[in-house]
């Protein structure tokens, strides 16, 4: 249990995150952008479980949108931004990479030149693809069924994931760090400063260290810029250290990143 | 074989699409945006198979970027834009939704208000998620293995896809059309004009009609705005009719959308 005094009081914020309570999940990519920018946000279902009804209402499979003219989301996370919608009403947007694009642009986490936005965005999309493929290792057949019902397929899929997909993705990120080394010094993917691609990739790697500890212990030796420079350098940034010490950072459990030892390297 | 005189001569264009030849695949989402905007583009590997080497070079798993300072792509499609990169050099970007975001913004396919971009982008991301899930029905276990090696898992996954995922996605798009009905009249997802969300969703539906003809014949009765208004109305637009009659539109085969009758409704 986190102590209530550790929870950020966010009543004065323009931003409300609408997501499931208690898991980092896809909401964590969005939280990290706020934390990196030092901008207050309301994580409504974690601040008060009663608010989860509002999340479910907004993302209801019956909804045809809200009274402010916003269309319905497909699924959480969604983000409400005060006054940014039609005629100064609240704006509600959804889809993790779309929310990151919005916040990255508004909060200055997109590098320094115009075209850096598209570099940051493509890296973010690929990091989120890796997160989705991680999810699919424990749910290869049907997202609504239990892991135990699809364990045989999960064993085959996770072996393929560890042996072919992980190194393919890690090589891509390593080569991107290399491509930007003169500016980013192995620490930043785009330009010479933090972008939402860095925060997103960092979270995916951190989730993989939780889910696949043995595989990651071995793989991390193969990609030095990614694992000896990028991952620890982002982790050491003051904002991330402050966040991890704040009580706001949620523990991994049965979300996107799950630890099933039988799926890890044996 | 398509006749060469049908191929658009695109030597004078600022845009080069780098993608696999002969299949619509993910490249088709990008082609449709150019076709809708009436903007010339070079589809380099389809105009001359010899150019495919350039695509493979750009997306090589060894590349650490190009001489113009562009980072390496993860996989095709990529897009080269003349003069839009660092110091007026060529810009190379990748990831389908990132390329669509770029082109949608540059070519005026993002609606009429500032926040419409984020509505169009979230709908596009969800349509592409549906396309990815369609791909995963024939490759549920390992993307690099043959369909025949994962057919048992494909039968289970495609049943779940048809029974739970398709209606969930279709309901979402139907409710978005409903939410925007006063402006879009069931024909457009965002505002009162064509956006890249419309072209992308249309292509996913068209691919699904190819891959799952029986399931679609039945499902299409459940979502009237989507299938009686949106799909035929976009198909009837002059630019799309012209494109389909041009010889440039590629046939479906063994790409993202595949027709395996055993995976369809029985």
TrEMBL record, chains A, B:
GO terms for molecular function: glutathione transferase activity. Gene3D superfamilies: 1.20.1050.10, Glutaredoxin. It comes from the Eukaryota. SUPFAM superfamilies: GST C-terminal domain-like (SSF47616), Thioredoxin-like (SSF52833). InterPro entries: Glutathione-S-Trfase_C_sf, Glutathione_S-Trfase_N, GST_C, GST_superfamily, Thioredoxin-like_sf. Residues 14-111 form the GST N-terminal domain. GO terms for biological process: glutathione metabolic process. This is GST N-terminal domain-containing protein. It comes from Sphaceloma murrayae.
